[in-house]
Design brief:
Layout lengths: L1 E5 L6 H12 L2 E4 H14 L7 H9 L3 E5 L5 E5 L2 E2 L7 H11 L2 H13 L6 E5 L2 H5 L5 E6 L2 H14 L6 H17 L12 E4 L5 H15 L1
Parallel strand pairs: 1-6, 1-7, 2-6, 7-8
Antiparallel strand pairs: 3-4, 4-5
The structure holds 2'-deoxycytidine-5'-monophosphate.
Length: 220
């Protein structure tokens, strides 16, 4: 069984997808981590993000794998190296949209992503899972939340890491990211027609997970 979870950054996708996968005993697949890993490699190679041919060339000689870690964690392997922590650095977050907008790169990622469903039941989260990667997914969800709520969540996350940014700057960053994710030509962030839309603004994590579980059980 495939469960597809899409939505913008800060809607709670990762936390909720991980918990849901754990409750169902399914494999959790974070597709954003794959685009982030490739972006990290481009940064390390000091390649020019505007050189599309170079980026495609790098992607074809790169192996990105996700492996289950301890507890609910996922280990991200870039050419065999554990890059779980560095892929969350702000320089990666700020540049990943460039890599994610290139069609041949997305095609390659989608191919890898589909392989995860060959042997397991999965919960896969991203931007185009219900529309492009698995349009046939048994259950699709689109998680959303108001921009200010997403910004506050992000601020808390950053504060935990000792980073202070004012809320206005975070709102600006989120709006810019949404715009880029929603308007790119290939694999844009979009709700699939048959996805269940859930606004998580006023819900806590447990409430969202219970809501998803009730939709899934209802379906069985
Ligand atoms: O979910 P995230 O913030 O880790 O995603 C990182 C970036 O990758 C983000 O800019 C959107 C992009 N992405 C994408 O284009 N398609 C996906 N399936 C997942 C993420």
């Amino acid at each position: 069984m495939i469960i597809a979870i899409d939505g913008p950054a800060g809607a709670g996708k990762s936390t909720i997808s991980k918990l849901l996968a754990e409750k169902l005993g399914f494999l959790y697949v974070d597709t954003g981590a794959m685009y982030r890993a490739l972006t990290l490699k481009v940064i390390r190679l000091k390649a020019d993000f505007k050189d599309i041919e170079k980026l495609i060339e790098i992607s074809t000689s790169t192996e990105i794998r996700l492996k289950k870690g301890e507890s609910r964690s996922t280990i991200v392997l870039l050419d065999g190296e554990d890059v779980t922590i560095p892929i969350r650095k702000p320089e990666v977050t700020n540049a990943v949209f460039r890599v994610a907008a290139i069609y041949p790169i997305r095609s390659r990622m989608v191919k890898f992503q589909r392989e995860y469903a060959n042997n397991d039941s999965i919960v896969m989260e991203g931007r185009d899972i219900g529309t492009v990667v698995f349009p046939q997914a048994r259950k699709k969800f689109y998680l959303d939340a108001k921009t200010l709520v997403r910004a506050k969540r992000r601020k808390l996350e950053l504060e935990k890491k000792g980073i202070e940014i004012n809320i206005e700057d975070i709102v600006e960053q989120i709006e810019a990211r949404d715009m880029r994710d929603k308007t790119r030509d290939c694999g844009p962030l979009k709700q699939a027609e048959d996805a269940v839309y859930i606004d998580t603004s006023l819900m806590n994590i447990q409430e969202v997970v219970s809501c998803l579980l009730s939709h899934i059980k209802h379906e069985k």
